[in-house]
Structure prediction request, 65 residues.
Amino acid sequence: ELDGDLLCELWRFVLHLEGCPAGALTRRHWRQIASVCRADSAAVDCPAGLRVRRVGRIVRAGPGA
Prediction:
């Protein structure tokens, strides 16, 4: 199982590459995103319309993901 901090760093990198506005995300949002990745929760809505959700083994991020 991946560490929560590692998952957050991975997502920061991915969102940066995709040009998503991750600057408004709080520590709580990052923890919730890590929780979605670990299948502890199904989805999280973040600022700027960013939604992160899990469908089976796939984690999707984007507007209305």
About this structure: The CA atoms of residues 35 and 41 lie 6 Å apart. The two ends are 24 Å apart (CA to CA).
